[in-house]
Amino acid sequence: xxxxxxxxxxxxxxxxxxxxxxxxxxxxxxxxxxxxxxxxxxxxxxxxxxxxxxxxxxxxxxxxxxxxxxxxxxxxxxxxxxxxxxxxxxxxxxxxxxxxxxxxxxxxxxxxxxxxxxxxxxxxxxxxxxxxxxxxxxxxxxxxxxxxxxxxxxxxxxxxxxxxxxxxxxxxxxxxxxxxxxxxxxxxxxxxxxxxxxxxxxxxxxxxxxxxxxxxxxxxxxxxxxxxxxxxxxxxxxxxxxxxxxxxxxxxxxxxxxxxxxxxxxxxxxxxxxxxxxxxxxxxxxxxxxxxxxxxxxxxxxxxxxxxxxxxxxxxxxxxxxxxxxxxxxxxxxxxxxxxx
Amino acid sequence: xxxxxxxxxxxxxxxxxxxxxxxxxxxxxxxxxxxxxxxxxxxxxxxxxxxxxxxxxxxxxxxxxxxxxxxxxxxxxxxxxxxxxxxxxxxxxxxxxxxxxxxxxxxxxxxxxxxxxxxxxxxxxxxxxxxxxxxxxxxxxxxxxxxxxxxxxxxxxxxxxxxxxxxxxxxxxxxxxxxxxxxxxxxxxxxxxxxxxxxxxxxxxxxxxxxxxxxxxxxxxxxxxxxxxxxxxxxxxxxxxxxxxxxxxxxxxxxxxxxxxxxxxxxxxxxxxxxxxxxxxxxxxxxxxxxxxxxxxxxxxxxxxxxxxxxxxxxxxxxxxxxxxxxxxxxxxxxxxxxxxxxxxxxxxxxxxxxxxxxxxxxxxxxxxxxxxxxxxxxxxxxxxxxxxxxxxxxxxxxxxxxxxxxxxxxxxxxxxxxxxxxxxxxxxxxxxxxxxxxxxxxxxxxxxxx
Lengths: 341, 451
Known about the structure:
The structure holds two protein chains of two kinds.
Chain A: H1 2-32, H2 39-57, E1 60-69, E2 75-81, H3 82-87, H4 89-97, H5 99-121, H6 131-153, E3 169-171, H7 172-175, E4 182-184, H8 185-207, H9 209-219, H10 221-226, H11 231-253, H12 263-278, H13 283-300, H14 303-308, H15 312-327
Antiparallel strand pairs in A: 1-2, 3-4
Helix pairs in contact in A: 1-8, 1-11, 1-12, 1-13, 2-5, 2-6, 2-11, 2-12, 5-11, 8-9, 8-11, 9-11, 12-13, 12-15, 13-15
Chain B: H1 8-19, H2 27-31, E1 45-52, H3 59-76, E2 102-109, H4 114-126, E3 132-135, H5 139-152, E4 155-158, E5 175-177, H6 182-197, E6 202-208, H7 211-226, E7 230-237, H8 245-248, E8 258-262, H9 266-277, E9 284-285, E10 288-289, E11 291-296, H10 299-305, E12 313-316, H11 325-338, H12 344-363, H13 368-375, E13 378-380, E14 388-390, E15 397-398, E16 401-406, E17 417-423, H14 425-428
Parallel strand pairs in B: 1-2, 1-3, 3-4, 4-5, 6-7, 6-8, 8-11, 11-12
Antiparallel strand pairs in B: 9-10, 12-16, 13-14, 14-15, 16-17
Helix pairs in contact in B: 3-12, 4-5, 6-7, 9-10, 12-13
């Protein structure tokens, strides 16, 4: 029983990342009709916003420490952050340790800018082209973006720890009278954060005039246009919001796994499966499928399951996708008429 | 890749001549032969092929390998401070290249994919006229490229490859490995672990699901069980896995008190980070402190795991802080040129280049079979690992192995590991027909000079 609860918890944080990325993908597909294979790269750029802020906060000047030697036997050059000069060593250390939460604020304007540049600079030219062209150009863009990140930050993972207040783990078992159900604090934070972002996006679409127009545009773009509303501009803003959601998912993911240039690609394919299983164009479907697949993937990694079906952990998501598409061709919550022309 | 003056037709001609060349020549006979093998050098230069990951997840390690190769070429051609050439026990290298020919090089990108690595090696051999291929940062790639070099009739001097298979069941007459292997890691690490954590321990293994992971796990399990440990479970994890939480969580449900992470690169960084997140380092099981072990350490990768490596045991082929004359000379040479200390991958690649060049000089020929003969059974010193033997039976180097531990208080981003013990070579030596290395069936085959 403990193992099952633990894997459900594991599935929730993995599902959170899938849901956030798939939510953005669905927003873009639903509004612009574009299959965006560069969406994983936006997740990765978000993560590297956290890395960048960490490096900015660590900007230092060198002080020579004559009492110590470097690897060549020369006096050791010690890096002292400018923040330490300005605010004192303790305050500087605290600010640097909280770089990931601070990166939420840092990443929002950057992701909006990246989203708008991507949509206006490249993707808008492919609105009327076949989906195959869109896939090719956005996939190419994803490779270019990850190579740029690699050129600046290298290929190795970069440690980006959570603030000390969230680095430990929580004895979840003690709450429910069970043993050995330990769950890291930061993964709980990630799940809660994902819930807030998802609720925010749904509230924005449901309760604002802007959201109402966007929803109307998703249902019937031509009619909304004929009413004199500039739907294209609103869709551009939606692209920026989708980029922001993916970026925030990336920022908060950095303490879970050290970011590297390839992390976007690792999530991309699974996120597309999530969108298809959830139902093309269905925002609730994307969120539901994200969590369902995340939890199923966690269960499939249990030793007891692998012992019965070896290799199931590597194919479970695709297996579920096949079953769902065979039994419900529109996905779990897909609607008639979407992606069926 | 640079353009060679050798044509494909020329290569084929040389290969055809090789068909008629018996492979039982002694060193003296080889010395008279400068043709009859693949890519026999013409003119005043010789081309080496450096096949390293320039893209993909091990690109940083590949970049460090390439730096080491460039330094080796510089030193072979008489440039710089000579690095480890003055400390090398063999004195045939005099800064005039190899056999008096200036050393040039071409590079290929393995991408850490076997097919891409074979394609780039093939291109360097056929188009660029490379006489020797070296490099790589993965055992899958090493085994694949070694097989290609065997077929093509050139020498392969392996880079970073730690699977037992490279010089075990997949050993080849044209392939040579300086780097240590999984068996050696296990044999060196197990006594240190038993000493530090006791002999009554229960280990849970997470293992990367490919050739290196399998042989690494098998070796560590055998070595630790021989000292009294038991193995609770071994779980194979997909190489593409990024989040190991669902593999780490079940460890909590067992009575294991040690987690062995048979992972390398990004896998190691992520699995170790996840294990620490789940509080394993702070856990008490069976009345003992829970421990984590990373059998193969890489300083470049350890940086990615940050503070999580502190206090964790592992093994490594070489470390820049070694005090011997050769290690210090190489660290000084590399550090002065590039501004940071070399990695173990850089060290093994630099060493392999010098060993190849010296073997050619001693053989008096570039003929791969002459070079192989010169390397087989060669004993040397001064290259950073103490007295070393290139064993004739399997082309594996035998030398001391370093057991290291993540440093508690690093003074810099390079100062992550501390050497805990230098395990003597006698403790890590095994017979060539050891069951983990292919048993009695494993064979080098015949040297191929190119045909």
